[in-house]
Amino acid sequence: LANRMFHPEDTIVDVNGIQIGGKKIAMIAGPCSVEGEDQICRIAKEVKAAGADMLRGGAYKPRTSPYAFQGMGTAGIMAMVKAREETGLPIVSELMSAEHLDEFVENVDIIQIGARNMQNFDLLKAVGKTKKPILLKRGMSATIQEWIMAAEYIMSEGNPNVIFCERGIRTFETYTRNTLDLSVVPIIKERTHLPIIIDPSHAAGDYKLIESLSLAAIAAGADGLIIEVHDDPEDAWSDGAQSLKPKRYAELVEKGKAIAKVI
Ligand code: PEP
Ligand code: MN
User: How many structural domains comprise the chain?
Assistant: First the structure.
């Protein structure tokens, strides 16, 4: 169903009137974790002013350690809803368990399937039974073929609204958190008709690298960027080291638009 051979034209996923896969680069930004209503509403306004089209924020967090902050859960989702009311930005959040599917269908505009759940086939089938746009992150050790088959799990249940998201893969390199694999952009575009966006934040793990990777992603033909932005990265509850401050994010958006114009 994802195969370009049987569907030559590009799929454009519509998210409350914002298109992913069209001419414009979709800019998604926000903190790794929702830390409270004030925090998410404040950052939502800042990223909107910087040029973001959508807001990200995790409420159910897949943390390596069970002792680390696990996310605010329902209160986090409701804080995202409030931020959407205040800014009009559609909201993206990660679903970790089908147990919370109804809550996400009701409240969230894009359901994110995280890297760690890319091959959680029951979860893929569950979101496939909805019509919600699904942001399908690449597993950190997944081949492109495995990733495309994960999209097939969603589509074969009846949901065509899949957006791929490259977020870096595990390699021998330790300088970066993961290795951003930009070769997937032309490959996914050749093999499938679905949109693909890039998450440079989880690939790099370091805010200093985000701008270069983002500009390269746009030049490579990506349909959008999802970037972690926090107004106090030093005190962020998760992923502060890779989070941009709003001012730096605004500069990135400006440069990104300039590159998008010439490609
Ligand atoms: C996230 O987006 O905050 C996240 C946990 O991403 P990934 O699944 O790519 O690690
Ligand atoms: Mn994160």
Answer: 1
